[in-house]
Amino acid sequence: MSTPTGIGTLTVRPLDPLRDAELLHSWVTHPKAAYWMMQDAALQDVEREYMRIAAHEHHDAYLGLHEGRPAFLMEKYDPRYVELVGLYDPEPGDVGMHFLVAPTDRPIHGFTRAVITTVMDELFADPHTRRVVVEPDVSNKAVHALNEAVGFVAEREIDKPEKRALLSFCTRAQFLAARGVAV
């Protein structure tokens, strides 16, 4: 899927864990990616993690491109089997999501908002997706604001093994309303 935005075209392709590992390593170990929790990961750790995701039946990773150049990472997962097992009652059509914007020396105003919108467009392109679920760190105020801007509603804080998280949901109707699209 290709999404034209005010900042250029964003596209998403399946991640190749071996080919993309070096690039991902530079992103996930960057200080701006602290919430990704891979700051001390070696290249082999990143390869191994994304090979694990590639082999998982209920977890997928994608590389996001801006004008054809790598610019963000997107993961989607089935919360019945990954990340949120036992932490909430999933509904049919729930899809979990993570995204990470690549660090840059030349930030583009509105880029991260365009990325999360593209990620949501990609998830809702599947007619089976009824609701997107996220669980960012409770202290990640910047991502909470972004999530809210695209229609997420926080439900409650939950304790995951690696963090205290803010469980939030966004239905297709909430996403379209946040974009100003009549439902």
UniProtKB/TrEMBL annotation:
Start and end residues of each Acyltransferase MbtK/IucB-like conserved domain: 13-60
UniProt keywords, alphabetically: Acyltransferase, Transferase
MF terms (GO), sorted A to Z: acyltransferase activity
Origin: domain of life: Bacteria
Pathway: Siderophore biosynthesis; mycobactin biosynthesis
Pfam families: Acetyltransf_8
Matching InterPro entries: Acyl_CoA_acyltransferase, Acyltransferase_MbtK/IucB-like
Functional description taken from the UniProt entry: Acyltransferase required for the direct transfer of medium- to long-chain fatty acyl moieties from a carrier protein (MbtL) on to the epsilon-amino group of lysine residue in the mycobactin core.
Protein's UniProt name: Lysine N-acyltransferase MbtK
Species for this entry: Streptomyces tibetensis
